[in-house]
Amino acid sequence: MAHTTPSERELSLVDPVWHRIREEAKQLAADEPLMATIAHAVVLHHRTLESAIAFRIAQKLSSPALSEMMLREIADEAFTADPSIGDAARADIRAVYERDPFCDRMLQPLLYFKGFLGIQSYRVAHWLWNEGRKDLAMFIQMGSSQVFSMDINPAARVGKGIMIDHAHSIVIGETAVVGDDVSMLHSVTLGGTGKDDGDRHPKIGNGVLIGAGASVLGNIKVGDNSRIAAGSVVLKEVPPCKTVAGVPAKIVGDAGCAHPSFSMIQTMPEEAPEDIVPDC
Q1: What residues does 48 pair with on adjacent strands?
Q2: Which of 94, 102, 231, 254 has its CA 20 to 30 A from that of 16?
Q3: Band of the pLDDT at 14, cuts 50, 70, 90?
Q4: How far is Cα 110 from Cα 97, in angstroms, rounded to an integer?
């Protein structure tokens, strides 16, 4: 086993996610010399995960109107002012690593996955929005929509441990709320109906799984640990621990397991074993 310095050993204890990402970046640089530059620029030149994320989203969202340096300073400011943003990022990385079978390293979301990067861009924009810097928040939202194909209103409230697989054509409206440990696939819409302002978007509970192409419309609640089948249009409240499907969506059974967003199982078993049906 290779000898580790005290600083590396300490990092592995106090911030295991960041320590693992650094170790994976070192291995990437050794295995693929053509990727060494990006491994160093995005990961190994930074002391913290927060700094690395700030660099990466600034790199992706920079434009002639707002330079990479300015965006990085804005993101650094957000991470410093609100440590919960960094905590949420770590939970998001774990979520992607644990739920996406394509992801076999914690390094990958930071380097390659627009679902992860789009959520982190939203988190910075949301901080700006809450600080009253709404125009700058909307500017970052616009850039994130263009680059990552994820249009998340900076006023929306999104929890931690979020996994958005493929992350193409995601729309989350202004008054939407997304709980912790939610998983969704591409082309999901959490939208409003009509032209009324006010509280008009869905409230998604903890542990919910939302299938590809699903739309949840209006100020309705989707209960904890429920499943929304791919292609469904949800217009009415969904109780906890249920599966809904169809257009319009109807309850077609129980969720099938205690944590649908963790299992990512989207098929409907003919009969779920009693030992895995959640007691809600």
Answers
A1: none
A2: 102
A3: confident
A4: 11
- The SS3 assignment for 75 reads helix
Cα distance between residue 264 and residue 184, in whole Å: 9
Nearest residue to 215 (alpha-carbon basis) of 226, 224, 206, 202: 202
Q: Are 149 and 174 in contact (CB under 8 A)?
A: no
Q: Can you give the pLDDT at residue 254?
A: 93
Tokens at residue 101, please? 């079978």
Beta strand extents in 145-245 (DSSP E only): 150-152, 157-158, 163-164, 170-172, 177-178, 183-184, 189-191, 203-204, 209-210, 215-217, 221-222, 227-228, 233-234, 242-245
Single-letter code of the amino acid located at 128: L
Question: In 3-state terms, what secondary structure has residue 251?
Answer: strand
Q: Which residues contact 225 (CB under 8 A, 6 or more apart)?
A: 205, 206, 207, 208, 240, 241, 255, 258, 259, 260, 261, 278, 280
Share of the chain above pLDDT 90, in %: 86
Measured distance CA(199)–CA(177) in Å, rounded? 10
Distance (Å, whole) CA 3 – CA 228: 48
Nearest to 38 by CA among 108, 95, 105, 89: 108
Walk me through the domains of the chain, giving residue ranges and CATH numbers: 1-150 (1.10.3130.10), 169-280 (2.160.10.10)
pLDDT in the model for residue 194: 81
- At residue 234, φ and ψ (nearest 5 deg) are -100, 120
DSSP class of 199: S
Extended beta strands in the chain, E state? 150-152, 157-158, 163-164, 170-172, 177-178, 183-184, 189-191, 203-204, 209-210, 215-217, 221-222, 227-228, 233-234, 242-245, 250-254
The tens digit of pLDDT for each residue in 121-146 reads 999 999 999 999 999 999 999 999 99
Mean pLDDT of 218-236: 97
